[in-house]
Amino acid sequence: MKPDWLNDPVKLPDQTCASLASARQGQLTKPAGSLGRLEELAIRLSALQGAEYPSIEKIHITVFAADHGVAAAGVSAFPQEVTVQMVANFSAGGAAISVLAKHNEAHLEVVDVGTLREPGDLPGVISQRAGAGTANLQVEDAMRVEQLTIALNAGRAAVLRAKERGADLFIGGDMGIGNTTPAAALGCVLLNADPGQLAGPGTGLDSEGVAHKAKVLREALSRYDNLNNQPLEALRCLGGFEIAALVGAYISCAQLGIPALVDGYITTAAALVAVREQPEIRDWLLFSHQSAEPGHQAMLKSLDANPLLSLGMRLGEGSGAAVAIPLLKAACELHNNMATFADAGVTES
Ligand SMILES: O=C(O)c1ccc[n+]([C@@H]2O[C@H](COP(=O)([O-])O)[C@@H](O)[C@H]2O)c1
Ligand SMILES: Cc1cc2nc[nH]c2cc1C
């Protein structure tokens, strides 16, 4: 039922490299701690990459796209066909993540995990489909076990491609009209939170729309008991194919030793499921930004995550993570290239 790789061991961050990197930070020509979180970032990347001198050069971005049966319940400000239209836009290079990937010289691929798209090839789009959209979680389980397995495997396959390309950072993005609803549903179950706390505007619902979304969520949640300690079953009943693919991707990153930079609300819901399923993977997740979606804060808090940026973004696609790439690069450049007190002949305190 569960893919067998799911229980593979998680790689341990390299503490020797972390100690060497930490010692080096103490020798660079700056007051101790003066580069703030950039210092922590460099040390963490050293530990995760098993290198005293970390690098962010080969970035692999996978956007997972899928449709959601719950869109029929009127939970989004946009019509469902936008998911398929945006897949074409990713392929043509016109989406925000297309621009940001190019700007950061990152490799970008799109995986259709189950949109309503007609069969047919699109450049840069890989099909690994678990179905044509999930079932409507307001009234029934979102997916069957076999569909969950296909979606988890799609996430793993993306990380295996990243590994093959020698990626030093993985970014997962999401595209799916309606997907803030399954993300909120998973948050409610795993945080024991009320839909009123986690339902938000998504693509732009007004307050009436948000209240309706909370009602849809309450109806969905009322069908289940005890999902709180069954993260994968919660994912099957209340998730989405792209969210499941992201869960598979984050767990695989930790097993295969690639740091993952988490994006916004939907990707954080996937991270929460992944961490509840395998707590040791938490070390491998870096958090890029605080989404404008209000429920994001509660999920971040539960993951003890303090994202790097807060720009009021709420786009998804991995765009917030892509915007944070230059910070990770800056942390590595400073760590690797600054002079030490001894080299520069500068007096230490
Ligand atoms: O990642 C976020 O923080 C985020 C917050 C709100 C909306 N989105 C994107 O908007 C879509 C989902 O919004 P909605 O209103 O249709 O549920 C989906 O394609 C997401 O990528 C993404
Ligand atoms: C246009 C559009 C682009 C998106 N990208 C991610 N989610 C999206 C939702 C909409 C509506």
TrEMBL record:
It catalyses: 5,6-dimethylbenzimidazole + nicotinate beta-D-ribonucleotide = alpha-ribazole 5'-phosphate + nicotinate + H(+). Keywords: Cobalamin biosynthesis, Glycosyltransferase, Transferase. The active site is at residue 317. One of its GO terms (molecular function) is nicotinate-nucleotide-dimethylbenzimidazole phosphoribosyltransferase activity. GO terms for biological process: cobalamin biosynthetic process. CDD domains: DMB-PRT_CobT (cd02439). InterPro entries: Nict_dMeBzImd_PRibTrfase (IPR003200), Nict_dMeBzImd_PRibTrfase_bact (IPR017846), Nict_dMeBzImd_PRibTrfase_N (IPR023195), Nict_dMeBzImd_PRibTrfase_sf (IPR036087). Belongs to the CobT family. The lineage of its organism: Bacteria, Pseudomonadati, Pseudomonadota, Gammaproteobacteria, Chromatiales. It comes from the Bacteria. It comes from Sedimenticola selenatireducens. The keyword Glycosyltransferase applies. Pathway: Nucleoside biosynthesis; alpha-ribazole biosynthesis; alpha-ribazole from 5,6-dimethylbenzimidazole: step 1/2. Catalyzes the synthesis of alpha-ribazole-5'-phosphate from nicotinate mononucleotide (NAMN) and 5,6-dimethylbenzimidazole (DMB). This is Nicotinate-nucleotide--dimethylbenzimidazole phosphoribosyltransferase. Pfam families: DBI_PRT. Its EC number is 2.4.2.21.
